[in-house]
Amino acid sequence: MFISTIFLIISFVPLILLYENRKPQAREIVIISVMSAFTVIANLICAYTIPFHAGTAMVILTGIALGARAGFATGALSRFICNFFMTQGTWTVWEMLAWGLLGALAGVLFSKVEMLGILDNKNKYKKEAKKTGIQICMIPLLCIFVCEIIGYVLYLLGSHTGESFWGWRIYVFGLIGMLVSFLFRKNKLPVNFITMTVFTFLSVFILYGGIMNFAAFTMTQSSYNDSVGALKMLYITGLPYDIGHALGAAICVFFIGESIVRKIERVRIKYGIIKRK
Questions:
Q1: How far apart are the first and last CA of the chain?
Q2: Which member of 8, 11, 224, 273 lies 3.0 to 4.6 Å from 93 by CB, making a disulfide possible if both were Cys?
């Protein structure tokens, strides 16, 4: 509970300071509220029907379309509201932080959404976007793959008897691979269905999964004698859910991602909301 409270303060202080200094217009608060409502509805529908995790996808798409501040605000607010329907608890603040970081990271890494005109050749655009997206995604995927190989080699050299590679190393070395690929990239990621889908899968699996597995440890570690062993076991047992979560969100982004970010962009341009560079 103490650690969760600290994370709650950490997650909200930067948001409060940013908005207090910027003095946002009412229209900006309205669009964040609307996107939060859509996120909550999407999450609740998927929670009780098909496990596609559309709520997580909506947080990332909001960050891409409206920027890091709006992405973080939408993610944190949406998770808080969702848990009024799905039970509140010490896990709420961790989920708020994780969703908020997903939205903020999407806003930082992606460039401004490019609009298509009525006369633009949409089939030609999709072919070019597919080709460009695959080329761009090869770099982070290669970096993550190399880092995972390094992690596996270190596991072989220094692991204990009975210890499994399929656990915390997947998340840690995956995160290192993501950071390396983004640090060496000068330009922001273009907004297309390939880059958004790949980013969604990687960020949800590595970032959200990594945070929530550690959160589960803080909420259950008192029932274990071996804290380190318990943490390792949580990362192993959480792996199937994290893959399913990331895959479900990525599928949503693949099919509806571009349509949603372009609709948000039209609203943003029409009403002069949250200017993006």
A1: 39
A2: 8
The tokens of 148 are what? 């995972």
Express each pLDDT in 44-99 by its tens digit: 999 888 888 999 999 999 999 998 888 998 998 999 999 999 888 888 888 988 99
Give 194-209 pLDDT, tens digit per residue: 999 999 999 999 999 9
State the chain's maximal CA–CA distance in angstroms: 66
